[in-house]
Amino acid sequence: xxxxxxxxxxxxxxxxxxxxxxxxxxxxxxxxxxxxxxxxxxxxxxxxxxxxxxxxxxxxxxxxxxxxxxxxxxxxxxxxxxxxxxxxxxxxxxxxxxxxxxxxxxxxxxxxxxxxxxxxxxxxxxxxxxxxxxxxxxxxxxxxxxxxxxxxxxxxxxxxxxxxxxxxxxxxxxxxxxxxxxxxxxx
Length: 187
Prior knowledge:
By secondary structure, this protein is mostly helical. It has helices spanning 3-7, 28-58, 60-80, 84-103, 107-133, 135-155, 159-180.
């Protein structure tokens, strides 16, 4: 995983839906609808990821732009938190260690590594949020996203419809999840 993935899971327009365990008191219809929407969401997200990968392969200049953006953000984060670069490097090391622990089926080591990674990610999120507010960083992100979207449109003319549908699915899934868990608007 690259530093970009740690810092900007959404930079390449990837969307996520927080999914947590649902209570045992779900109505069958809502639960079934939730599952159907998740299947559609995962399918659309997979397609978007494929388009992103094809776009980066077809437009190597976007990889350069992504690398420059990454450097700008890491530099901004380091100005805010001098330990940010060290934290990012440690996350990369933890990933490799986690792969080894997973391969050897060492659950205790996996938990230990995940706890350390979580602590580092929490600390980095504050520096990242502040860095993203900087005008130069925000402008560079916007430029990259526009260039990426233009490239994606060349690969898949329907990319905007896919992104729009993912956002609709995200909203619908979050609302349905709240209802299933008995939150506001739920039981």
